[in-house]
């Protein structure tokens, strides 16, 4: 990733060339905007190396992010945009940015209806039984709306989904960034890896947001990716990329249900019909 300092200097140089500021307003810039746009799919990369964009391409990438994040579309990295980029979120790329659909499919699925999970490395912040209970609850969100079942793997059994908590570089090519920003990430079928950032403060469901990040809610989001869903453009959807605390257990919107039932149909067309006008 290009360093935040280099990126800031580069972007200021671009704004001078353009004759108008890329950064709008007067605020303390402390986020690598260009790196963020590369990391989450708004700017192209050559393998792991970001491609330096032109002023117009950079501005269009900001506009696309602003549209996806339901912000005023200015084409500038203004204060509201930078604050949104710094908000806690999922580490999976926003692959839906160039699509028109209300939910986006990851392009793969699990062939079996009975799937297993296990935690290979628990967080040190909560009892293992508490973690298991929250993960079981998160799997139930999806099993209640599909013909899939999810059970904890028996000791010695190889699970479909391997869940673990880790800090920083955990050898999957997508290092965590410390407390805040990226909370967790998951891989699409049939990879099965689901990772949570141990630098976050994790709380069981039912506790206020100020006490920590809701494990149940984040887990349910990542499980959606592990089942084949990409990020949703619907701001209220569970599969939207940004963390939004909810005290509810019933956290799927019609958009989430439409997406998962398109991948794993219940067998009746009526079960997956959801007109856009009826979506949350």
For this entry, give a set of tags.
280 residues; 10 strands; 2 domains; Collagenase (Catalytic Domain); two-stranded antiparallel ribbon; disordered N terminus; 7 helices; alpha/beta; disordered C terminus
Strand order of the largest sheet: 3-7-8-6-4-5
**CATH class group of the largest domain:** Alpha Beta
Q: How many helical elements?
A: 7
Strand content: 5-15%
Unreliable residue stretches: 1-29, 269-280
Total number of distinct structural domains: 2
**N-to-C span:** 36 Å
> What's the CATH topology label of the largest domain?
Collagenase (Catalytic Domain)
CATH architecture of the largest domain: 3-Layer(aba) Sandwich
Rg estimate, integer Å? 19 Å
Question: Which shape, going by the Cα principal axes?
Answer: globular
Largest sheet: 6 strands, mixed
CATH superfamily of the largest domain: Collagenase (Catalytic Domain)
Approximately how much helix is present in the residues?
Answer: 25-40%
Structural class: alpha/beta
Secondary-structure element sequence? Answer: HHEEHHEEHEEEEEEHH
């Amino acid at each position: 990733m290009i360093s935040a300092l280099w990126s800031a200097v580069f972007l200021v140089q671009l704004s001078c060339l353009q004759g108008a500021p890329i950064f709008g307003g007067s605020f303390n810039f402390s986020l690598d905007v260009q790196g963020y746009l590369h990391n989450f799919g708004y700017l192209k990369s050559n393998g792991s190396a970001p491609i330096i964009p032109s002023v117009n391409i950079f501005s269009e990438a900001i506009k696309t992010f602003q549209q996806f994040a339901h912000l005023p579309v200015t084409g500038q990295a203004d204060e509201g945009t930078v604050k949104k980029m710094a908000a806690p979120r999922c580490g999976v790329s926003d692959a839906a940015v160039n699509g028109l659909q209300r939910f986006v499919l990851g392009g793969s699925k699990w062939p079996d209806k009975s799937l297993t999970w296990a935690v290979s490395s628990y967080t040190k912040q909560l009892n293992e039984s508490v973690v298991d209970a929250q993960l079981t609850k998160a799997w139930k969100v999806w099993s209640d709306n599909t013909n899939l079942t999810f059970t904890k793997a028996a000791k010695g059994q190889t699970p479909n989904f391997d869940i673990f908590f880790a800090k920083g570089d955990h050898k999957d090519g997508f290092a965590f960034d410390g407390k805040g920003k990226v909370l967790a990430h998951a891989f699409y079928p049939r990879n099965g890896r689901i990772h949570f950032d141990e630098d976050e403060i994790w709380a069981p469901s039912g506790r206020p947001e100020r006490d920590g990040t809701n494990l149940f809610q984040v887990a349910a989001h990542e499980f959606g990716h592990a089942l084949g869903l990409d990020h949703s453009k619907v701001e209220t959807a569970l599969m939207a990329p940004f963390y939004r605390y909810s005290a509810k257990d019933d956290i799927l919107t019609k958009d989430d249900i439409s997406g998962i039932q398109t991948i794993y149909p219940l067998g009746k067309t009526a079960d997956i019909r959801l007109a856009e006008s009826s979506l949350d």
